[in-house]
Design a protein that fits this description.
With 408 residues, the chain is of the alpha+beta class. Helix content is 48%, strand content 10%.
């Protein structure tokens, strides 16, 4: 179907409302009675009833499932009879769910790097507020709700992200409805203690991780050879020979250890920004959490890994999913198996980034340089690694010894 509206009989719109299909593009079906009633179907599968009250203006009735077709018809008739029905499409009358579906969802998905996550946070964390009018939200009830979540054991940083997701939608609402006031304008973020433990690899853990990677590739190569022997005996077409790394996992891990890139930055990495001649990796602002482009010099191992996996006509994603030929969204299964074999059960992928920074600091690299390489927006984020250089801090304090002896 196309995005165009289609006039259909009552049985057809009822069938569409009950269907579970997920179209490539949004489309609408219009009921023949009452005039103006329509059902909009989104690529996500969401189906929502609306009624058009005049040219270019429509009123949201609600989702199919919550409303039966008969209920939607009755609601549409009532709205069409009400001369003030159009008030429902103004900023003062719209609910959180309505504004999310009709105005903010597409904006977030198109403009925010964390669009999907933001929409999911609003719909799950703030589900009890979805049927409230946006204009009725206030800082007091939001504060009570976030305090409840803190008492339930959630971390302040998590609660702050939840509030930020909702606040971002409200900022969008204010910009699009002149004269409205941001309900959370005076709300301050919760103070987040900077007590995150820096997890990095000990030398033994580093060796075990690398051995697990090497063994994984060796086993995959042997499995492929045995499979081809089996296929050759039966006259089947042989599978491609494995040369070098068996798949994406080993190069992903090694690049992460040697560059400190975030997993999202790794997944979005493009060959266009890997310069082996100048030994430089560029992380674009559009792919970075800090929204700033940064350059990371490549050491010998990183260059070797990139060179080993670089195709003849290198373009597009460095690591493309063999299933979708698009960006990976996770490598959780392979990672869990890897750390199990390496016997490092508490290691997270993000700890590879911590390890990169930690190793630099322990080798005497300044926190300022580490901050630039990591893409931290503030020095405070990098300060957590300062404790890993106690000898350098002691050397600085010992400079006072000479002053004391001169004055004695």
């Amino acid at each position: 179907m196309t995005a165009a509206s289609i006039a259909v009989e009552r049985s057809s719109i009822a069938k569409t409302a009950q269907s579970k299909d997920k179209p490539d593009k949004p489309y609408e079906v219009r009921a023949d009675k009452p005039m103006g009633l329509l059902l909009r179907v989104q690529p996500s599968g969401t189906r929502t009833f609306y009624v058009q009250v005049e040219r270019g203006k429509r009123v949201r009735i609600g989702p199919a499932g919550t409303f039966t077709l008969k209920q939607a018809e009755e609601r549409a008739k009532a709205i069409l009879r009400d001369p003030d029905a159009t008030k429902r499409i103004t900023g003062q009358g719209i609910t959180v769910q309505e504004y999310l579906d009709d105005h903010y969802r597409d904006h977030a998905l198109a403009q925010l790097k964390t669009g999907k996550e933001t929409i999911n946070r609003i719909e799950t964390v703030w589900s009890k507020f979805l049927n409230k009018r946006v204009s009725d939200l206030n800082a007091s009830e939001i504060d009570r709700f976030r305090n409840k979540r803190i008492l339930e054991g959630l971390a302040p940083a998590t609660v702050n992200r939840d509030v930020s997701a909702l606040s971002g939608m409200l900022t969008h609402w204010v910009k699009n409805n002149k004269g409205t006031i941001h309900p959370l304008a005076d709300m301050q973020a919760l103070e987040v203690p900077d007590d995150e433990t820096v997890r990095y690899l000990t030398p033994d853990e580093g060796n075990r991780l690398r051995k697990a990677l090497a063994d994984r590739d060796t086993q995959a190569t042997l499995d492929r050879e045995n499979a081809n022997l089996w296929r050759e005996k039966r006259g089947y077409e042989l599978l491609p020979e494995i040369k070098g790394y068996s798949d994406h996992i080993t190069p992903m891990v090694l690049i992460s250890l040697n560059t400190g890139v975030r997993q999202g930055e790794l997944f979005a990495m493009q060959w266009e920004f890997v310069d082996l001649e100048r030994r430089n990796l560029t992380v674009l602002a559009s792919h970075s959490k800090g929204s700033r482009t940064r350059n990371i010099p490549l050491n010998a191992e990183a260059c070797s890994v990139f060179a080993a996996i670089k195709p003849t006509d290198a373009k597009g994603l460095v690591f493309a999913s063999p299933i979708t030929d698009d960006e990976f969204d996770n490598v959780n299964t392979a990672w869990e198996n890897l750390i199990k074999v390496a016997e490092i059960p508490d290691l997270r992928w993000h700890d590879l980034r911590h390890d990169f920074a930690s190793q630099l600091v322990m080798k005497g690299v300044s926190l300022y340089v580490v901050q630039q390489l990591m893409g931290h927006s503030t020095a405070k984020q990098t300060q957590r690694y300062a404790r890993l250089a106690p000898s350098h801090l002691s050397d600085a304090v010992r400079l006072l010894d000479a002053v004391g002896m001169l004055g004695s």
